[in-house]
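Researcher: Please generate the 3D structure of the following complex. Treat every line as part of one assembly.
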Amino acid sequence: MKVLITGGAGFLGQRLARELLARGSLKDAQGTPQALSELVLLDVARAHDFGDSRVRTEVGDIAERDVLERAIDVDTAAIFHLAAIVSGQAEADFDLGMRINLDASRLLLEVCRQRAHVPRVVFTSSVAVYGGDLPAVVQDDTALNPQSSYGAQKAIAELLLNDYSRRGFVDGRVLRLPTISVRPGRPNAAASSFASGIVREPLNGEEAVCPVAGSTRLWLLSPRKAIESLIAGLELDGAALGRQRVLNLPGLSVSVDEMIAALREVAGDAVANRIVRRPDERIERIVGSWPGAWDTSRAERLGLAGERSFADVIRAYIADEGIVLG
Amino acid sequence: MKVLITGGAGFLGQRLARELLARGSLKDAQGTPQALSELVLLDVARAHDFGDSRVRTEVGDIAERDVLERAIDVDTAAIFHLAAIVSGQAEADFDLGMRINLDASRLLLEVCRQRAHVPRVVFTSSVAVYGGDLPAVVQDDTALNPQSSYGAQKAIAELLLNDYSRRGFVDGRVLRLPTISVRPGRPNAAASSFASGIVREPLNGEEAVCPVAGSTRLWLLSPRKAIESLIAGLELDGAALGRQRVLNLPGLSVSVDEMIAALREVAGDAVANRIVRRPDERIERIVGSWPGAWDTSRAERLGLAGERSFADVIRAYIADEGIVLG
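Model: Done. Output below.
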């Protein structure tokens, strides 16, 4: 089976690639495991190829048709579309966000539509499609009300994928991801970047700024579970999804204070005390518009699961990154 | 004040133009009436200019940037964007629907964004943004779930207008119109065309096909009220709308059987008996996915009103069209 990952050089893209290569197969639309014959990693920078002959790296601008036509083969059976401009950057650069989060997503669907077969396509979406006066737990039929350009662009991509699927141009699924925490590496331009930073930086012996109130409730998912969910989402039976191709993934609802307490529990006072509280009105406004939890019974019925405690998430991060606690 | 109507040669566009010319003024963003200095009617066919020197007609493809740049002046203060591909046609010709209902709407917002001022822009949307398992009365926070490409395109245009308004590029409002009935003229490619046809054709002495079950509930608005609502929607105080620029307009919830009974009451048995029932699965599927009523308390608080009885709507149609009952 030929598989494409857009954003293949990114954090999730690389983790997903590694996991797919390790598994060596993916279920096809009939539920039968098929060996992974080719894995295309497309990004603006050349992705790491893991020294694996099944990997083909492609470098290009995903908003250009010929780039996508090169990446999507006549027999590409599965596409994970992870390339995106993150929330903070899409708010700062409206045109760039529209180009990548909207135009490139639509172009990808259009190139699939040209192909004779019907590829399975996974889009990722976000808590940012919600906003305004929200119930404590967002339900499947709660109206979208994005309060950022990123959220609006993701909501539009969801509508496009649903309609392209309904018309039979693709077999699509949208997974609304909770905020991913703990991401390794450096801070990024996402408004939610601190949700990883307040764990990662203190564990690295560095100061971390917490820009929101301690009572701010976040809806989180670990990188491990995110990768598991992406693969499970692709392998889901399309018929079980029906017309509604958008799925709220299970996550963990925690306040920032609870996150810090979990870090204190796992890594001790000296680490947790490296967090400095410095409110940032711009970030509070964006993050504060997102839901702190959503109903995930549909995803659970379809076999997807979240995590149980944020302390466990931190422990998994420490294990994955080989961090030695002082 | 300079005003633009896209779809200015269409049925609603022409009625709106006539009403604006008769009123002679529109309230500006501060609520002060300003004389109508120029009314641009843009459409693919040349619009009737009412022999009025204030009218400028423009012919062109609204999905082309130079056409919109010609139509939207540096001081165009109000835009009614009515141009659209109707539901049945957007389902039959996917690319055309995307081009006009999505791309042209976005281009219009982009051209406004280039202008130094912030024009008020009215988009029209539709019951077709809803679908799936709906409550008996759709609420303001009921999730959008379009079951047609037309509905998906309208939902996307709503999201765009909300975000362009939030960013201050335009001062936008979306009015979700109930199905307009009774439209004069001939049937069109809208799936809801019969909602006018089953009144209009029998009154013209012709047979009319009713393609849906008599129990099908429609959410209707007369042309008179639609025009009133478009103008009221433009004149609404933007601050009162806040972040949520989409408004469900008040309408009349009636079943097809009730519509036929109203026609019988107003025009007699001979007229009502010209309706032939011939179910059409394609139309039933599209129309059946639309809500039969929605909560309109927000629009009512903002001063918008619907009608009271479908018999009155028929009587208004008969008066407007100068029909003499036999």
